[in-house]
Amino acid sequence: MAELREPTLYGDLATSVPEIRLFALLPSPQPNAPLVGQLQVVSLRSTPPYESLSYAWGAPEFTEPILVNEQTLFVTPNLDSALRALRHEEIPRILWIDAICINQRSPQERGHQVTLMRTIYSKCERDLLWLGPNTRVDQAHYMNPSEDHLGEGMQLMRGIADKDISVLGVMGHKWVAYKNSRIERSLRSLKRQQSEKDVPDAELAAQIKRREAELSATANGSGWLLSYDEQTALKRILTFPTVWNRLWVMQELSLAPKIQLVGGRHTLDWDIISEFLGDTPYADAFHATYSHESVQPCVGRMFEVVQKIDHQRRLMKEVTAGHRESKLMDVLARFRDTQSSDPRDKIYGLLGLVSGKINIEISYELTPQQVFASVTSAIINESGNLDIICQRPWTSNTGFISFTDGQEITTGQDKLPSWAADFSKGGQIHLFAQRSIFQAGRPSCKVPCHVMNGTVLHTKGTVLGQIGPNLQQDSVGTQKGAGSTWIPLEWLKLYLGCDVLSASESDHSYVTGEPAFAAFWRTLVVDCAAYPMTRITKNQVEEEDSAIRSKWLQKLNDSTDPETKPSYDDRPFVNPGILAMWRHITSDWVFSTTTNGLYVLIMPPAKEDDIIVCLDGGKVPVVLRPLEDTSGDGEKRYQFINVAYVHGLMDFGTRDSAIIREKLGLEDEEFWLE
C-alpha cells in the first residue's frame, strides 16, 4: 500500500452523503518536473467533471514521490509514468485514482469506498486506460511496449476499423494466397488418387469439381490474414500490457461511459474497437497464424479479454435500462482468470457489475475464507440452486486461498469449507448442464440456505450408491499416453467382461433395463455428442451400438495377432459427435462402478467408499466423503469432493424415478457439508 510521510493527509470521509476525494494534477510544461497535486473532498451526489484512471499497480514498490497537499506520497513507477503522460501543460487535470484518492491504510475506508465504485466509474466523463510505457516494469521487453510501438498498434487498429484499403490490401492478398494454397494442395491429392484408379470414381470427380469451384470463388471472397508484425502490433495494445490481467480494471472499464486507451502520447477511443467487434461478419474475417502454423480467426483469441469487457459493457447498458440482469455468478465466472493481489478483491472488485441487491458484506477485516464461504452461500440464495457447487468454473478448493504471487494461506478454523468455491483459482466446468442437458437433482434447494457457524452447509438429497473398488492400477492418467484410444476396451475387460459384447439384449441388462454394453459405452461419453453438446438420441444409440459392437469385437481379435498394425480408423467410436465427446471426456475422467451396480465416471481425488449423491438443486450428481463426527451433535458430516456422471440417473430430478428408487432402495437424506 502507499507509504505516507504524514498520516494527516487523509481526513475522515462522510459515509451517509457519501463523499469521495478527487485528485487535481497540477500542470507543468516540463515532463520531468516533480508531480504535484491537490486532494479535494466532494459529495458523490454532485461532483465536478472528472476522469478516472485504470492502470496496473505493478510490483509493490512505492519508490516515486509526488507532492499531494504539500505532503509527500510515494507511488509505484507505473503510476508515476501515467501521471507524467497525462499531466496537462497549462490547466489542472481532475482525476479519480484509487491509490491516491483512497486512504489505503484504512481497511474501513477501503471497504466503504468499494461499495461506491459503481457510482464513481459510472459518473466519470471517461476512463483513461493506461497501457504504458513503463520503463520500470520488471518483465520482458516485448511485454512492455515502447510508446512508439503502442502508437503503431493503435494506428493499425484504427485503420482496420475504418476499413482503410491501404491497410487491408496486403492482408487480403495474403488471405487469397493462403486459401488457394490449401485448395490447390487438396486438388493435387484428389487428382493423384483419381489417376491411381483403374476405373473412374464418381465421388472423386465430384470432389475435384467442388474444389475447382472453391478455387474460382476464393478470388471473389473476403478475408484478411495478418502478418506476424501486424499480429504483434495489435497484441501490444490488446494483450501484452499487464493492465488487461488486472481484475479491478474489468469493473472500471465495464462501468465507464467512455474509455480512452492511452499509450504515452498516443490514444485510441474504445468505441473504435467496440464498433469493429460489433461488425461480426467483417471482424470474423480476420485471421492470424498461431502455434504449429495453424491459421485461426483472431477475434476470439487476440481480442478475448476485450470481447469480455465489451460484452459486459453492453449488458450494463441493458441493466441500466431495466431490460436485463447481471448475476453475481455470471460476473465472477466471466472474469475469473484476471488477477488481484488480495484474494478478497476477486469478489469485491466485481460487485459493482452485479444488478440487484446481494447480501455480501464488504470488509477487509474478514478473512478470504470467510468472504468466499459467504459469497458461495449468497449465490445459492440468489439462484435457488447449487450450480455454484455442482457447476462452478473454479478449481476444486484445497482449503487454501492463493495470492497472485503463489502464496497460500490457511489458519485453523479459517480453512475454506469444501463446498465453498475458491474464487482465487480459475478453472473449468467439468460436467456441463447449464442448458438443462442434465437434471439429476430436484430443480431447486431450500433458500435461504442454512450455514452453521459460517462453515457447515445443510443440504438434502438422495444417495445413489457407494463407489466400489478401483480396478485400474492407476486411476490418474490411465487413459493417457500410448494406446489411450482403446482404453474403453480395457475398462470393459476389467469391469464387465467381454461377454457383454456379444450378449443378447435380455442378458447382462443394466438397472435401466438396457443392455449392459450399451449402458457402458453411453457412460463413457456421458450420454452426449459434441459440439454443441447434446444428449444422444434413440436413433444414434441404435446406429452406434451396432457399429461399435462389431468394431470392438474385431479389435479383440486383432489384439491376439501381433502382426496387426494400427490403422487410421483405429478409434473406438464411429459417430463423429460421439467420438468428439469421448476425446473431451478422456482427459479427466475414469470409469468405475458403485457397490449397487451403477456405471459411473469419476475424477480424482474421488475414491473407493466415497458416496455419490443427487443433491436438491444440483443438476449433476456429486461425490461426498463421509467424515468422522467430531461435533457431538450426531449429524452426518461430509466433505464435497467433485462431480460425477451416473448412467441412467442424470435425469433423476425430472423424470418419474419411482421404479429406479424402489429397485435400488433409494431414500432422501440430510447432509451436512464441511
TrEMBL record:
Residues 50-252 form the Heterokaryon incompatibility domain. It holds the Pfam family HET. InterPro entries: HET, HetReg/Transcr_Mod. It comes from the Eukaryota. PANTHER family: ANKYRIN REPEAT DOMAIN-CONTAINING PROTEIN 39 HOMOLOG-RELATED (PTHR24148), HETEROKARYON INCOMPATIBILITY DOMAIN-CONTAINING PROTEIN (PTHR24148:SF77). This is Heterokaryon incompatibility domain-containing protein. It comes from Clonostachys chloroleuca.
